[in-house]
């Protein structure tokens, strides 16, 4: 199980990293294209936006695995260890519920609904863009089940920006 | 109907947060539950799933991971130390000169790195040991560091302001960036004024200034770092590139700088990317959940209802602003800045607009007010990090923080009731 | 309240402000529906992009979260390629021709019903103006004047090809950045209807407005297909009639707005309005017409439009 998690971690991190670097390169290309080469590249912005969607959801799934989504824990920490543990399990169930019903099931419904839709500038099928949601839902489910089996608990709140 | 749906929304949201669910999950789940009360199951589900995607589908939003990445590269790139030396030259003759240097260092480094956490950590690590050697109390040093660290969130470039731009329906990022300078610098100055009196009382020493040759060297080596601000902010304000492209330029520039300064190695890159992915994965997911949350609110007509009931309490703009500031300060004690900006903008902005307030000025009040929460318990990232690096307990630093807290609130009142503090620079540049 | 019990509420979303002509016409649509149905149907309007961008509200209309939406024809291109025909420059030589085509049932039946399988149908269109070229400081009367002109275009291939065909340099950028970009000289020109001069203050930085009329891209009024089909025949008729009447009503509101704003741009901002001979422009974009008439996705609608133009 831990091996599987490591594998998924590496996969998601690599994919996110590649997307992040590609988005940096494309954004710089866009500036260059405009000033140096005098080309309008209407597809670049659209492509970058779609990469951002994939990047955002894949990274979000990874952050579920790392248990680093911001939560407010100072109240929970006032309770006994046992109560805290059951709150954590309840939270895990809710995460699985959201991921399976909304992200996976709802996401697939949306993919089907948008199957005929094409992006304006690049012609990329919108279904491909929307596919990121159910896929990331699956990873979230995987991580949460893994966390429950290995009895992981969310630590002190992670500090954001 | 709207009352029932509204209650479902807020009660489920608060309950979920109380049991410690991730805030993004609490936002999504309460939104979907609320949709179920007004729409057929299938429609509610598809609508929610769609908004989870379209909520990230925005080119400006790319600026957030890019600025975070640039900040992390800077943080690894030996830039903080050069800026500290530069700050020392600027304010070294004031009482408590090392504390003053810490505050200015936070304004400079935080401005570039765009993160109160990175800033508090970097400055605390560099300045803490120096201050102890000169006999400063640990709690005093920590308080100055914590109180000044959030200035980098207001002084551009700033992810917080980009988040506000997105959630307020596309307020100009360039205008918000220019608006951030005066309030952000006033915040830093307020901290320095308090530190001035505290240091005088404690009779902390004034450090000797380095000789002129060293000063010139220090200024020279800080210039490339400071030049980043000129390129990025200048480019955005002049309309040469967008905020997003500016952020990409910042990544490029900081990478080059890090290679030159410290020999950024290939092996450092995975760590830098991982840190960026962790922070932005969290932020982007929050943003997209909030897009769903605000869709549900608009669909029910809640902002209008809230706005009406606020206006029934007070009809004056001053009254509304005082109520809003109070709510923001309270919320900021336990909510992190990004989720708070996402939650409160759609609630308060429509009211502000009925008073004809400028969305740039309003955004500055909102972000400034919420950033103050960064230094307050129980949840405050600058507080946590600043106390940790100074090796003091959070309880110890609360009392020394109080005068700074008061001073910053006074600045907030100025920012609120003198719109020109926010609008002067954007107007000057025709933004 | 005095609300009629059992009154049906239809939700209508659009992205314009409360003082925009199309909002006024949509309010009129609501009034007409309520009047004609004796209060059986009420229309609730969500203005100001409260429920999201045009693509988002189109999707909300698909799922049925909203019943009605006003979106630009260009936003519908992604859903149905027929709508891309409006991006084709000079597919209508002038507004009269546009009106004639848009009132031809062969064209509208194809356009409006094509998307039923995707969950929505078209009800009517609203005049959203003719797009003209405006520059910072250069008068453009003929194709040679276009040479080297950096023009901001909408992010679509057709718009890019149009500017290239006319000899200019297309530059893709977000609409919100156009003002600063013209001011700083990053671009020389942009193209839009007259309301951009006053509504977006572009008249402060762009002083020449040429009536090139290269595109006429209407706003489309769409409805969730299931919702429409579930209505009684009588109610369906009422919706259709009210939609048509509001389109006619809108022509006046739009014309008045354009006239007022043109006066303001002329007198208060010092913008020069210039009539140009369209024929060299029309000729220059002919290769694009060939693309459209040869492309299998657009050939049929292109043909229908050409036939509708010839109709007496
Ligand atoms: Na900053
Ligand atoms: Na706090």
UniProtKB/TrEMBL annotation, chain A:
<feature type="transmembrane region" description="Helical">
    <location>
        <begin position="52"/>
        <end position="74"/>
    </location>
</feature>
<dbReference type="GO" id="GO:0005886">
    <property type="term" value="C:plasma membrane"/>
</dbReference>
<feature type="transmembrane region" description="Helical">
    <location>
        <begin position="124"/>
        <end position="145"/>
    </location>
</feature>
<keyword id="KW-0472">Membrane</keyword>
<keyword id="KW-1003">Cell membrane</keyword>
<dbReference type="InterPro" id="IPR007387">
    <property type="entry name" value="TRAP_DctQ"/>
</dbReference>
<feature type="transmembrane region" description="Helical">
    <location>
        <begin position="94"/>
        <end position="112"/>
    </location>
</feature>
<protein>
    <submittedName>
        <fullName>TRAP-type C4-dicarboxylate transport system permease small subunit</fullName>
    </submittedName>
</protein>
<comment type="similarity">
    <text>Belongs to the TRAP transporter small permease family.</text>
</comment>
<dbReference type="GO" id="GO:0022857">
    <property type="term" value="F:transmembrane transporter activity"/>
</dbReference>
<dbReference type="GO" id="GO:0015740">
    <property type="term" value="P:C4-dicarboxylate transport"/>
</dbReference>
<dbReference type="Pfam" id="PF04290">
    <property type="entry name" value="DctQ"/>
</dbReference>
<dbReference type="InterPro" id="IPR055348">
    <property type="entry name" value="DctQ"/>
</dbReference>
<keyword id="KW-0997">Cell inner membrane</keyword>
<keyword id="KW-1133">Transmembrane helix</keyword>
<feature type="transmembrane region" description="Helical">
    <location>
        <begin position="12"/>
        <end position="32"/>
    </location>
</feature>
<keyword id="KW-0812">Transmembrane</keyword>
<keyword id="KW-0813">Transport</keyword>
<feature type="domain" description="Tripartite ATP-independent periplasmic transporters DctQ component">
    <location>
        <begin position="23"/>
        <end position="146"/>
    </location>
</feature>
From TrEMBL, chain B:
<feature type="transmembrane region" description="Helical">
    <location>
        <begin position="6"/>
        <end position="39"/>
    </location>
</feature>
<keyword id="KW-0472">Membrane</keyword>
<feature type="transmembrane region" description="Helical">
    <location>
        <begin position="143"/>
        <end position="167"/>
    </location>
</feature>
<keyword id="KW-0812">Transmembrane</keyword>
<protein>
    <submittedName>
        <fullName>Tripartite ATP-independent transporter DctM subunit</fullName>
    </submittedName>
</protein>
<dbReference type="InterPro" id="IPR010656">
    <property type="entry name" value="DctM"/>
</dbReference>
<feature type="transmembrane region" description="Helical">
    <location>
        <begin position="59"/>
        <end position="83"/>
    </location>
</feature>
<feature type="transmembrane region" description="Helical">
    <location>
        <begin position="173"/>
        <end position="199"/>
    </location>
</feature>
<feature type="domain" description="TRAP C4-dicarboxylate transport system permease DctM subunit">
    <location>
        <begin position="10"/>
        <end position="421"/>
    </location>
</feature>
<feature type="transmembrane region" description="Helical">
    <location>
        <begin position="276"/>
        <end position="300"/>
    </location>
</feature>
<keyword id="KW-0997">Cell inner membrane</keyword>
<feature type="transmembrane region" description="Helical">
    <location>
        <begin position="404"/>
        <end position="425"/>
    </location>
</feature>
<dbReference type="Pfam" id="PF06808">
    <property type="entry name" value="DctM"/>
</dbReference>
<feature type="transmembrane region" description="Helical">
    <location>
        <begin position="320"/>
        <end position="349"/>
    </location>
</feature>
<dbReference type="GO" id="GO:0022857">
    <property type="term" value="F:transmembrane transporter activity"/>
</dbReference>
<feature type="transmembrane region" description="Helical">
    <location>
        <begin position="247"/>
        <end position="264"/>
    </location>
</feature>
<feature type="transmembrane region" description="Helical">
    <location>
        <begin position="103"/>
        <end position="122"/>
    </location>
</feature>
<keyword id="KW-1003">Cell membrane</keyword>
<dbReference type="InterPro" id="IPR004681">
    <property type="entry name" value="TRAP_DctM"/>
</dbReference>
<dbReference type="GO" id="GO:0005886">
    <property type="term" value="C:plasma membrane"/>
</dbReference>
<feature type="transmembrane region" description="Helical">
    <location>
        <begin position="215"/>
        <end position="241"/>
    </location>
</feature>
<keyword id="KW-1133">Transmembrane helix</keyword>
């Amino acid at each position: 199980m831990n091996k599987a998690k490591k594998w998924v971690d590496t996969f998601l991190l690599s994919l996110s990293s590649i997307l992040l670097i590609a988005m940096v390169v494309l954004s710089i290309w866009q500036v260059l294209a405009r000033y140096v080469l005098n080309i309008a590249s209407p597809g670049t912005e659209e492509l970058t936006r779609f990469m951002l969607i994939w990047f955002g959801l894949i990274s979000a799934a990874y952050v579920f695995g790392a248990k680093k989504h911001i939560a407010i824990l100072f109240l929970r920490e006032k309770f006994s260890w046992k109560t805290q543990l059951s709150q954590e399990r309840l939270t895990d169930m809710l995460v699985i519920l959201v991921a399976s019903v909304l992200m996976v099931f709802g996401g697939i419904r949306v993919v089907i609904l948008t199957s005929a839709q094409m992006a304006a500038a690049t012609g990329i099928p919108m279904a491909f863009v929307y596919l990121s949601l159910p896929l990331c839902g699956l990873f979230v489910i995987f991580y949460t089940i893994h966390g429950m089996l290995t009895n992981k608990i969310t630590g002190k709140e992670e500090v954001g920006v | 109907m709207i009352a029932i749906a509204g209650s479902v929304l807020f009660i489920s949201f608060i309950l979920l947060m109380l049991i410690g669910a991730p805030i993004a999950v609490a936002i999504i789940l309460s939104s979907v539950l609320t949709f179920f009360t007004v729409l057929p199951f299938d429609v509610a589900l598809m609508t929610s799933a769609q908004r989870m995607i379209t909520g990230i589908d925005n080119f400006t939003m790319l600026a957030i991971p890019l600025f975070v990445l640039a900040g992390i590269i800077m943080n690894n790139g030996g830039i903080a130390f050069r800026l500290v030396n530069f700050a020392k030259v600027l304010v070294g003759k004031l009482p408590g000169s090392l504390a003053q240097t810490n505050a200015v260092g936070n304004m400079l480094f935080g401005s570039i790195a765009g993160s109160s956490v990175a800033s508090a950590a970097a400055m605390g690590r560099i300045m803490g040991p120096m201050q102890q050697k000169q006999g400063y109390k640990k709690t005093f040093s920590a308080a100055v560091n914590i109180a000044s660290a959030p200035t980098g969130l207001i002084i551009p470039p700033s992810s917080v302001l980009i988040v506000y731009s997105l959630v307020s329906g596309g307020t100009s990022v360039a205008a918000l960036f220019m608006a951030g300078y005066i309030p952000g610098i006033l915040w830093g100055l307020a901290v320095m004024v308090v530190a001035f009196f505290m240091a005088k009382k404690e009779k902390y020493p004034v450090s000797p200034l380095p000789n002129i040759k060293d000063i010139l060297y220090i200024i020279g080596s800080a210039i490339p770092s400071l030049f980043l601000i000129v390129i990025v902010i200048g480019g955005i304000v002049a309309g040469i590139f967008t905020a997003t492209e500016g952020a990409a330029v910042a990544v490029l520039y900081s990478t080059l700088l890090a290679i030159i300064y410290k020999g950024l190695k290939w092996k450092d890159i995975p760590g830098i990317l991982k840190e960026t992915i962790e922070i932005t994965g969290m932020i982007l997911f929050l943003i997209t959940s909030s897009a769903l949350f605000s869709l549900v609110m608009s669909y029910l007509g809640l902002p209008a209802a809230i706005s009406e009931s606020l206006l029934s309490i007070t009809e004056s703009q001053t009254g509304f602003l005082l109520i809003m500031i109070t709510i923001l300060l309270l919320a900021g004690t336990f909510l992190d800045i990004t989720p708070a900006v996402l939650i409160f903008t759609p609630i308060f902005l429509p009211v502000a607009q009925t008073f004809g307030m400028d969305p740039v000025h309003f955004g500055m009040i909102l972000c400034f007010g919420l950033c103050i929460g960064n230094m307050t318990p129980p949840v405050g990232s600058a507080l946590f990090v600043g106390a940790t690096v100074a090796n003091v307990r959070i309880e110890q630093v609360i009392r020394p923080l109080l005068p700074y807290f008061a001073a910053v609130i006074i600045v907030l009142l100025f920012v609120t009731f003198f719109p020109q503090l926010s609008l002067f620079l954007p107007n000057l540049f025709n933004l | 309240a005095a609300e009629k019990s059992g009154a049906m509420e239809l939700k209508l979303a659009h992205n314009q402000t409360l003082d925009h002509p199309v909002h006024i016409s949509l309010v009129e649509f609501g009034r007409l529906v309520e009047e004609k149905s004796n209060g059986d149907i009420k229309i609730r309007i969500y203005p100001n992009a409260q429920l999201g961008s045009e693509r988002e509200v189109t999707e909300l209309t698909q799922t049925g979260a909203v019943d009605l939406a006003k979106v630009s024809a260009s936003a519908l291109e992604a859903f149905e390629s027929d709508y891309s025909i409006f991006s084709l420059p000079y597919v209508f030589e002038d507004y009269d021709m546009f009106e004639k085509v848009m009132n031809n049932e062969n064209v509208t039946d194809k356009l409006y019903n094509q998307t039923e399988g995707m969950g929505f149908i078209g009800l009517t269109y609203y005049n959203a103006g003719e797009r003209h070229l405006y520059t910072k400081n250069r008068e453009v009367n003929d194709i040679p004047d276009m040479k080297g002109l950096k023009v901001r275009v909408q992010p679509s291939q057709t718009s890019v090809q149009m500017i290239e065909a006319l000899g200019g340099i297309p530059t893709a950028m977000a609409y919100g950045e156009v003002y600063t970009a013209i001011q700083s000289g990053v671009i020389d020109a942009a193209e839009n209807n007259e309301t951009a001069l006053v509504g977006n203050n572009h008249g402060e930085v762009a002083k020449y407005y040429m009536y090139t009329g290269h595109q006429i891209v209407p706003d489309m009024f769409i409805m969730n297909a299931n919702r429409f089909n579930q209505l009684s025949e009588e109610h369906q008729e009422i919706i259709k009639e009210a939609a048509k009447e509001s389109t006619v009503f809108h022509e006046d509101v739009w014309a008045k707005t354009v006239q007022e704003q043109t006066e303001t741009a002329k007198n208060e901002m010092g913008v020069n309005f210039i009539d140009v001979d369209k024929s060299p422009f029309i000729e220059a974009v002919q290769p694009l017409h060939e693309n459209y008439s040869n492309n299998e996705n657009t050939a049929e609608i292109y043909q229908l439009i050409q036939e509708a133009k010839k109709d007496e």
